[in-house]
Amino acid sequence: SQQGEEDPQALSIQEGENATMNCSYKTSINNLQWYRQNSGRGLVHLILIRSNEREKHSGRLRVTLDTSKKSSSLLITASRAADTASYFCATAGAQKLVFGQGTRLTINP
Amino acid sequence: GAGVSQSPSNKVTEKGKDVELRCDPISGHTALYWYRQSLGQGLEFLIYFQGNSAPDKSGLPSDRFSAERTGGSVSTLTIQRTQQEDSAVYLCASSLGTGVNTGELFFGEGSRLTVL
Which of A33, A91, A92, A106 could form a disulfide with A12 if both were Cys (CB 3.0 to 4.6 A apart)? Predict the structure, then answer.
């Protein structure tokens, strides 16, 4: 069964705006990861946040993790048309990595 | 190789036929995953190999699905007596870390299976 659930399922914003996507999960985790998928392609790793971390930055990406609420958010600042893609959170528990359903992000020029 | 390689990239088959999908992980990666992605959907976990340990097959949808990993490297996912609902993109990924050290997964470009 799926562990992570992303919200919203789809998001459409104007170029230059910030995009926020949320992920909720159900069981304890060792880390949480965010991936990006361009249409018809494989997934690319964006960022990993460990269970003892609360916030992490990478370029225009900011990830937060609240283990008490079992939730994470991915913020993309100053969005660009090239950020159009699907974004997935994945939770690493005792063994395998389990993915959510993803958020489809569209950046309008 | 430089990345995870999957073949074939596209496979069209007739209902009832068997298919084999191949994955060549990054050299030295001990963990290998197979996922299935239907059109516009998320990733459905199928099977996970970790070193020499017994694989986690908990995601395989039926006994028509099987996978093996030979010599700790190349993996083959086999679907017997294919059905139309098997149509999807099958994604393979590998990583260095396992268990509590599960880190970044490196994905192949996937094998798109269409069952007519």
Answer: A106
